[in-house]
Amino acid sequence: MSDLPYTTDLLRLAAEAHGAGRLEPPCLSHTEANPVCGDRTTVDLHISSDNIEAMAHETMACVLTQASASILGQSLAGHSLADLKALREAVAAMLEGGPAPDGGFSAYRHLADVARHPARHRCVLLPIDAAIKAAQG
User: Fold this and answer.
1) Is 3 exposed, middle or buried, given 0-12, 13-18 or 19+ CB atoms closer than 10 A?
2) pLDDT one-digit tens code per residue, 67-121
C-alpha cells in the first residue's frame, strides 16, 4: 500500500480542476507526458506582453498532477513567464524539502509531502513544465 499524502485538501484541489478545458483558439499550447506512469497534460496559454492572461489545461493523470494543474489553473493568470519559471524553481526546491511557494501559489503546500516520494516529483512538476514550454512557443 502507498503512503502517498492523499489528504482531503489535495483531493479537493484535484477534483475542483480549476482551469480544466481548452482555450479557443489557444495562442500557445504544449503537451507534456510522463512515460513512467502515463500522466499527460496539455496546457493552453493566452499571453500578451509577457503577461499570462489565461490558462487552461486538459489533464489525464494521477491526483498529484491533477492538483498541480488545478493550482496553476486557479492562480497563473496575471503572472509573467519569469514568475512561472520562479514557481518551477520554488516547487522543485519544495520537493527537495524546502518551503512551499507563497503568495498566489501557496496551495502547493498541499503537495509538500510528495518530497518523500522522489519518483512522484515529476507528477507535480508536469503541468508547470508544460506551461513553461507553451509560453516559450
Assistant:
1) exposed
2) 999 999 999 999 999 999 999 999 999 999 999 999 999 999 999 999 999 999 9
Domains and CATH numbers, the chain: 8-135 (3.90.1010.10)
| Residue pLDDT, tens place only, 14-37 | 999 999 999 988 789 999 999 999
Nearest to 71 by CA among 49, 98, 99, 103: 103
In 3D, which of 20, 55, 78, 63 has the Cα closest to residue 128? 55
Nearest-angstrom CA–CA distance, 22 and 55 = 8
DSSP secondary structure letter of residue 100: P
Report, in angstroms and rounded to the nearest whole number, the Rg of the chain calculated over CA atoms. Answer: 14
Name every residue whose Cβ is closer than 8 Å to that of residue 29 and which is 6 or more positions away in sequence: 42, 43, 44, 45, 134
Which triple of cell numbers denotes residue 56? 487552461
Distance between CA atoms of 120 and 115, rounded to whole angstroms? 8
Distance between CA atoms of 43 and 30, rounded to whole angstroms?
6
